Amino acid sequence: MRVPKFKIVTPPGGISGTGYAYEMEALTPLGAEIVEIDAPSENEFIAAAHDADALYAKGRRISARIIDGLQRCKVISLGSVGVDSVDVAAATARGIPVTNVPDTFIEEVADHAMMLLLATYRRLVVQDRMVRDGRWREGRPMLYEFPRLMGQTLGFIAFGHVARAVARRAAPFGLRMMAYDPFVEELVMSDHGVLPASLDEVLAQSDIISMHAPATVEAQHMLREPHFRAMKRTALFINTGRGPTVDESALIKALQEGWIAAAGLDVLEVEPVQPDNPLLKMDNVILTAHVASASARFDPARRRRVGHEIASVLTGRWPRSCVNPTVLEKSSLARWQPYSMERGPGN
C-alpha cells in the first residue's frame, strides 16, 4: 500500500463532478493526497486534520482554534479572492502562509461590473418589464429624464486589479474617472486615466460609484449612512466587491428615501439573499447572485491555482499570492519569482 508523502485536508463541498483532478495536476507528482474531512464540530475536524501538511480552505470557517490544532501545516490555500473565511491573523501568528487566487478571474468581474453599470444606468430591467407588460410607449419618456452616459463621472472606491480593468472598459464610453485608494500609488491611477481623489471627493462628485474594497476587518461597513447621504441624489451605486463592506441597512434606506437613485449589486451583506430583504422589491435595484467571477474558465483556473500554490510551499518555495507575506521572509521557503507578485488582500 502506497503511503502518501503529503496529506492535504479539506472540508467537503465546493467541487464539481471532476473531483480533485485539477488540483492534483500539480500535487500528484509530489506524492500528495487530498483528504476530505466531513466533521460537524471543530474538535472532530482538528482531530482528523492535526497531522496535515496543508489545508485547502473551503466549505467552513477556518478559525484560530482549528489553525492552532494544525501541528505541521505549511500552507492554507483558498480558491477565491476573499479570505474572510480564514483567521489570517491566527495563521500569521503560527507562521503559516495563506494563499488566494487574486488574479484568476479579474476580467470576468470587470465585465460584470461594467454590465451592471450600463444596465443600471439605462434602467434595463424596468425597460424590459415595460415591453413585456405592454407599456411600450412608456420606455422612451422614462429615459428622457437621464443625461447621456458620456461625460458622467465614475468613481472607484478601492483601485485594485478589478477596478483597473473596469477603468479600461469605461474609458471608451467617455466617462470622467476618479478613485479613492490610500494603498495605491497615484501614478497607477494616472496611467489608467483616473484622477486620484479623497473619499469625500469621490462621494460628492461621482454620478456612478463602483465599490471594490476587499472584505478586510478595516473595510467592514466602510460605507455607512453618512456616506450615502454625501452622494448625489442621482447617483448609482455598483458593488461587485464584497457585501460586508457596505452597511446594507443604510443602502436600503438610501434607496427607499431617495438619497441615491439606483443600485446594481452582485454581493450582499447576507448571502444567499433573505426572502424578506427589501432590495428584492425595488424597481431601482438590479441584483445578481454573487456570480461576477463565473465563466467556463472559472472553476478549472482557480482550482489549478490552488494545487500549484500548495505544491510550491510543499516543495520549499514561496507561493505566488500570499495574503500575509510577512511570514515568507521569516520562513525557510525560497523566493523564486523573478518579479513582484503584488501580494496583499484584494490584489
Description:
- This protein is of the alpha/beta class.
- 33% of the residues lie in helices and 13% in strands.
- The protein is built from 14 helices and twelve strands.
- It has helices spanning 21-27, 42-49, 64-68, 88-93, 106-121, 124-132, 139-143, 161-170, 186-191, 199-205, 225-229, 248-257, 298-314, 326-329; strands at residues 6-10, 32-36, 54-57, 76-78, 98-99, 153-157, 176-180, 195-196, 208-211, 236-239, 262-265, 285-287.
- The strands form two sheets. Strands 8-7-6-9-10-11-12 form a seven-stranded parallel beta sheet, sandwiched between helices. It has a five-stranded parallel beta sheet with strand order 2-1-3-4-5.
- The radius of gyration is 22 Å and the shape is elongated.
Radius of gyration: 22 Å
User: What can be said about the biggest beta sheet?
Assistant: 7 strands, parallel
Could you give the distance between the termini? Answer: 43 Å
- How does the overall form come out from the CA principal axes? elongated
Secondary structure: helix percent: 25-40%
**Number of helices, counting only DSSP H or I runs of 4 residues or more:** 14
Poorly predicted spans:
343-347
Please write the string of helix (H) and strand (E) elements: EHEHEHEHEHHHEHEHEHEHEHEEHH
Kindly name the structural category: alpha/beta
State which percent range the strand residues make up: 5-15%
Lateral strand order in the biggest sheet = 8-7-6-9-10-11-12
User: Could you tell me the mean pLDDT?
Assistant: 94
Question: Count of DSSP E strands?
Answer: 12
